[in-house]
User: Fold this.
Amino acid sequence: MIHFYKHTLPSLLILSCLLILLAGCSPSDEVLSAAQGKYAELVKIHNEVVEAHREVEDDSYDEALSVLQDDLNTIQSYNLKDMSEEEITLLMSTMDTLIASYQDYLAQLGNTKKEEDAAELTAIPLSLTNNTSFSFDLISLYQKDSAGARINILSGLESLSPTQSLTGLQIKRNAENTPWMLTLETTEGVTYDIELPVETYTEDGVHLYLAYDSETGSITV
Assistant:
């Protein structure tokens, strides 16, 4: 379980009172530019948190993020050109604190998303037997949308020869049943890509038998 540690934010009510008491000359262009840049940074991290919040099911963040939204709305209500440089400096300090709070929640939301995704995965044991006349020196198992993460299961091992079996493999089926791919490369350098219908596999596991279809020139399972 993730625990939330809420930052002690400067009271915007106190800030409002201070703005009334402080007095000074009109702010310089440099100070205005710095404040506008800080506000843009605050809005950017706010939008990132909003998007991350939409991706998680956990509703325990709702109240804290609502408070941050109220604080942001208060910040938006100020007109920088009507403020002194001292007032703007105080306002920028408040924005820094809000940005830090948003950054903390962004990290927490990211961790929550990973935990929720992991909870949706079903581990499925898998093994296969080579019933073709080919020998394979590359076998990869990977989610269809994650080809960049694939590795060669046979790396450092002997080729998988005809009639041999490979056990101890595992795939993880997610809630959307994203297909998995089985990529095979023969010792002659011919590659075969096979899409595995993981929605039909159970937690008990599945044994795949590789066969060669001479009519289509493809390998089937």
About this structure: The chain is about 40% helix and 25% strand. Residues 1-24 have pLDDT under 50 and may be disordered. The radius of gyration is 29 Å. Residues 85-119 form the longest helix (35 residues).
